[in-house]
Amino acid sequence: ESGKKVTVIFVLGGPGSGKGTQCTNIVQNFGYTHLSAGDLLRAEIKSGSENGTMIQNMIKEGKIVPAEVTIKLLQKAIQESGNEKFLIDGFPRNEENRASFESIVRLLRIVPEIVLFFDCSEEEMEKRLLNRNQGREDDNIETIRKRFKVYMESSLPVIQYYGNLGKVRRIDAAKPIDVVFEEVKAIFEKVDA
Ligand code: UP5
Ligand code: MG
Predict the structure, then answer these.
(1) Which atom of ligand 1 approaches the CA of 14 most closely?
(2) Which helix (H) or strand (E) holds 129?
(3) Cβ distance 57 to 157 under 8 Å?
(4) pLDDT digits 0-9 by tens, 58-112
(5) pLDDT higher for 15 or 104?
(6) What kind of fold does domain 6-191 have according to CATH?
(7) Is the pTM higher than 0.95?
(8) With a 6 A CB cut-off, is 151 part of the ligand 1 pocket?
(9) 13 neighbors 19 (Cβ within 8 angstroms)
């Protein structure tokens, strides 16, 4: 591998805050490859891999899959993409995820440029998830409550960690999709400049 610079932007925020929706918009406008850790894990379940059952059980319980598993899937997707600009959506979700990623990334010359933080109330996120209707096994009220708890206890501290490094760009994610994207666009116009 040559010394090409790889740019990674973490897209974080609670369940249903609009990470996936906004990543689709960013891809269309700014040439990034969107890697949703949750989508990669769900594809792994479907593929019938040996980890599939473990992943399925953890998602049903709203728990966080060990970094080793998720990072392997991310690395594979990065290599297959041929791109050098990535949105990593929904990862890292806890301290273990973050520390593992950072130790690998140092060797690969990958710098997490900024962290987009989609900030949204639980009330609004719950409403969105219950209305989504895409057959996700974790979009039931019981699992949604567990996801919120894990988010508050384990994922928010990761966002705070990057906040202390001055990397977080907070976005009011409770607004309509197009209004949120206007805010996102302004941030990317600076990143790419
Ligand atoms: N919607 C979006 N934006 C809106 C807006 N501004 N106004 C009104 N409606 C809006 O959006 C959710 C719904 O809201 C959609 O119907 C959309 O149209 C509407 P979406 O863009 O899908 O939100 P997103 O933040 O992507 O929600 P998602 O449910 O995907 O977030 P999660 O973080 O919960 O899910 P993820 O797939 O990342 O993870 C699922 C599980 O996988 C985790 O709980 C965990 O068990 C596991 N996981 C790991 O273990 N490790 C990982 O690294 C990643 C996941
Ligand atoms: Mg998503």
Answers:
(1) 33
(2) helix 122-132
(3) no
(4) 999 999 999 999 999 999 999 999 999 999 999 999 999 999 999 988 777 776 7
(5) 15
(6) Rossmann fold (3.40.50)
(7) yes
(8) no
(9) yes
Q: How many helices (H) and strands (E) does the chain have?
A: 9, 5
Which residues touch 67 (CB under 8 Å, ≥6 apart)?
Answer: 92, 96, 97, 99, 100, 101
Q: Confirm if 91 and 70 have CB atoms less than 8 A apart.
A: yes
Q: Is this complex's ipTM strictly greater than 0.95? A: yes
- Centre of ligand 1 to C-alpha 137, Å, is 12
Give the CA dihedral 188, 153, 58, 105, nearest 10 degrees. Answer: 50
DSSP 155: I
The residue whose CA is least distant from atom 40 of ligand 1 is 38
Does the C-beta of 10 come closer than 6 Å to ligand 1?
Answer: no
**Per-residue pLDDT reduced to its tens digit, 130-160:** 999 999 999 999 999 999 999 999 999 999 9
Distance 119 CA to ligand 1 centre (A): 13
